[in-house]
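Ticket reopened. Same input as before:
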Amino acid sequence: MKVIGLPIKTSTAPSASVVLKSCFHVEVSMMPRIVIKRGNRFTKLVVIGPRGADINGKRKWRCKCDCGTYCEATSSALVLKKKKSCGCLRPESAANRQRKHGMSLTPTYITWQSMLTRCRNPKMKQYHDYGGAGVTVCTRWHQFENFFADMGLRPDKMSLDRIDPFGNYELSNCKWSTRSEQAKNTRGAAALKILSKMQKAKP
Ligand SMILES: [Zn+2]
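Engineering reply: fixed in the latest deploy. New output:
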């Protein structure tokens, strides 16, 4: 007995790509209709004005990023949040990832953390000589990424040293030193400072 009915030939069957394409069109036409105006904000970008169209005829906008950089973006890139910044948002998130998964147990991170604790936490026994004595950490260094960018990796057997032991924790006043260097600097400079104060106090 013969089977009646035609086997479907894949070559003549409706191609899957047509179906997919029509789905894609439906999706695109469902993009929310938002009228973009000057001054509108899309995450870190503020629209400055129209900037013609791209090669596909999509409307483009000149935008200013919160970081101060100007850039261009199409309407759909802004509305669909495909473009949220001039590009500066990405390194920021990369730095966050690094903090969460890469650097938190490294000597450099621990050094940064103890610097903050010495200056901020009165329960720490060293607080008396740091935070309690008026030593602060510059605002830039409240973020580990900035401290790391300025000071780099902590060299082996070295520690964070303030050049002026009465000064604050900031790039202009910090270097990596060996422990003996640091002890010498701290005591020597402190003694000199006291001496000069005593001399000034003399009538
Ligand atoms: Zn930016």
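The mean pLDDT is 79. Residues 34-87 form one domain. Please confirm and we'll close it.
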